């Protein structure tokens, strides 16, 4: 036990846990990084801190400045917390389709929240483009630009990957997670490959995203849809550029929800759908690598952020996701 030097030192150094159900389903060892243990309750705290400290080191923001970002919510929450701790303002632009809990959390943290209609990236009204324009029009402001700012993935090269390697005693055969910005997948992949080139790095893609076909067939093409927030990408971001992807899986919301329900009912973990999709991908990767393999993944955020959606039976039924809680097909 030790005392943190300040509140920002609480970001990272999260626990790694062996997941019993997924390990049994895979005939292997499935480990998960508990990123919901960060102060902002998600993996995005790491990128938020890295992006702000990089901007400070380069003299891009001065005391009393403003941090602006477009986000599905979790990065915004991390940036708002970092901004508060460092004396900055925060302006967060978010699609109006995201969970009510994320909106309420951002407002409670003191962020100025700007909601915009969901739109494709090619639309000038997309939340990323809107946030960039606001940053350009705001004095002493930085645009965090989490998708193409490689300070994002650097946090995972030096932090998340190094922690996983140490916590697993250097005995790891594979790692997988979904991609939103691509920072976590690329950063952990690059960091683990530096330690051992033979570690298999896999993308786990939700339906509606284009990366599965890109890594499998060289073409950015999507099919289907997903209600998962914060994951799914239709382009190669700067964070994804050069990501060492060895193999890829596509996981449906239904498969992800099986693990969300099982991890809650059997292991007492309340998680979001991105975590369920990651765990489903980890099981697939472990089965591919063979019996006894050791695979790690990311538990992205807390399920308490989705009480009005994933944990609302009426919402699930409307989305066609009223999965039998006893399902064990994963």
Task: Walk me through the structure.
It holds the Pfam family PALP. InterPro entries: Cys_Synth/Cystath_Beta-Synth, P-phosphate_BS, TrpB-like_PALP, TrpB-like_PALP_sf. Its cofactor is pyridoxal 5'-phosphate. Keywords: Pyridoxal phosphate. This is Cysteine synthase. With 330 residues, the chain is α/β, with parallel strands linked by helices. It has helices spanning 20-26, 44-57, 74-86, 100-108, 127-137, 151-167, 183-195, 211-217, 253-267, 273-289, 313-318, and strands spanning 16-18, 29-34, 66-70, 89-95, 112-116, 141-143, 174-177, 200-206, 247-251, 294-299. Strands 1-2-10-7-8-9 form a six-stranded mixed sheet, sandwiched between helices. Strands 5-4-3-6 form a four-stranded parallel sheet, sandwiched between helices. Helix 8 links the parallel strand 8 (200-206) and strand 9. Helix 2 crosses helix 6, helix 6 crosses helix 7 (183-195) and helix 9 (253-267) crosses helix 10. The longest helix is centred in the middle third of the chain and has 17 residues, at 151-167.
Q: Ranges with pLDDT <50 over ≥5 residues?
A: 325-329
Helix content: 25-40%
Global geometry: globular
- Secondary-structure-derived class: alpha/beta
Mean pLDDT: 96
The largest sheet is: 6 strands, mixed
Largest sheet: spatial strand order: 1-2-10-7-8-9
Report Rg. Answer: 19 Å
Strand content: 15-25%
Tally of DSSP helical segments: 11
Distance between the termini: 38 Å
Oligomer: single chain
| Total strand segments | 10
Taken in chain order, the helices and strands follow as EHEHEHEHEHEHEHEHEHHEH
């Amino acid at each position: 036990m030790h005392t943190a030097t300040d509140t920002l030192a609480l970001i990272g150094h999260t626990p790694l846990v062996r997941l019993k159900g997924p390990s049994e389903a895979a005939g292997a060892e499935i480990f998960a990084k508990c990123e919901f243990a960060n102060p902002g309750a998600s993996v995005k705290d790491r990128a938020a801190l890295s992006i702000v400290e990089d901007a400070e080191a380069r003299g891009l923001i001065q005391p009393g400045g403003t941090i602006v970002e477009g986000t599905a919510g979790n990065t915004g929450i991390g940036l708002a917390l970092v901004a508060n701790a460092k004396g900055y303002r925060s302006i967060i632009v978010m699609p109006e389709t995201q969970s009510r809990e994320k909106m309420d959390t951002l407002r409670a943290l003191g962020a100025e929240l700007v909601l915009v209609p969901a739109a494709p990236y090619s639309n000038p009204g997309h939340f990323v483009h809107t946030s960039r324009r606001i940053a350009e029009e705001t004095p002493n402001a930085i645009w965090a630009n989490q998708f193409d700012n490689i300070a994002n993935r650097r946090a995972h090269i030096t932090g998340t990957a190094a922690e996983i390697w140490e916590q697993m005693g250097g005995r790891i055969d594979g790692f997988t997670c979904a991609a939103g910005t691509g920072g976590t997948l690329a950063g952990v992949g690059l960091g683990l490959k530096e330690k051992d080139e033979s570690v298999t790095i896999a993308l786990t893609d939700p339906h509606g995203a284009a990366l599965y076909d890109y890594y499998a067939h060289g073409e950015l093409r999507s099919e289907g849809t997903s209600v998962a927030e914060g994951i799914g990408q239709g382009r190669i971001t700067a964070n994804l550029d050069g990501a060492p992807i060895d193999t890829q899986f596509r996981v449906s919301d239904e498969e992800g929800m099986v693990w969300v329900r099982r991890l809650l009912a059997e292991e007492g973990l309340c998680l979001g759908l991105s975590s369920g999709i990651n765990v489903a991908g980890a099981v697939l990767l472990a089965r591919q690598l063979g019996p006894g393999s050791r695979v790690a993944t990311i538990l992205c955020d807390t399920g308490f952020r989705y009480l009005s959606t994933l944990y609302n039976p009426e919402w699930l039924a409307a989305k066609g996701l009223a999965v039998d809680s006893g399902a064990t097909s994963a």
